[in-house]
Amino acid sequence: MSGADDDWRIGHGFDVHAFGPGDHIRLGGISIPHHRGLIAHSDGDVVAHALADAMLGAAGLPDIGQQFPDSDSRYHGLDGMEMLDCVRALLLNEGLRLWHADTTIVAQQPRLAPYLDAMRSALGKTLGIAPRPVGIKATTTERLGAIGNEQGIAVYAVVLLRPA
């Protein structure tokens, strides 16, 4: 049996940003105090960016670089949660909705465990899947590579879409 109800789709996203000047970082829609910020054209929310790319990929739509190009000044400083809300609207227009999202934040610093529940809540509301939880985890690279040397933060995201 096949039909619209069977049109489940999986998407994968990835984003990375380098550290730069600043006094906080924005992850999963919340501000986290840190002695550095993230360098980005938008707000640098790598969690939101990875999720947006995963959602767009699952829907077969152009990635965030094409949807929100850094060459367009309208997107300078764009809030990652606003970006996710726009992507959610694009999905609905395609007859799709987000069913589940799972992310892994890769960062040596700052320690993120105290902020995961707040991120989960903010993301769930913006993505329209609250109160169902958004999977969000944080890990380090055990001081290996660029992330381990505290040069930036990366995020992997996987999403499951289904017909709206």
Describe the structure in brief.
With 164 residues, the chain is of the alpha+beta class. It is built from five helices and seven strands; from the N terminus they run ββββαααβαβαβ.
Classify the secondary structure makeup into a structural class. alpha+beta
The 3D shape can be described as: globular
Strand order of the largest sheet: 4-1-7-5-6
User: Helicity range of the residues?
Assistant: 25-40%
Query: How many helical elements?
Result: 5
Largest β-sheet summary: 5 strands, mixed
Number of strands: 7
Terminal CA distance reads 19 Å
Average pLDDT number: 94
Low-pLDDT segments, ≥5 res: none
SSE string, helices as H and strands as E: EEEEHHHEHEHE
Structure write-up:
The protein has five helices and seven strands, in the order ββββαααβαβαβ. A five-stranded mixed β-sheet has the order 4-1-7-5-6. Strands 2-3 form a two-stranded antiparallel sheet. With 164 residues, the protein is of the alpha+beta class. The protein is globular.
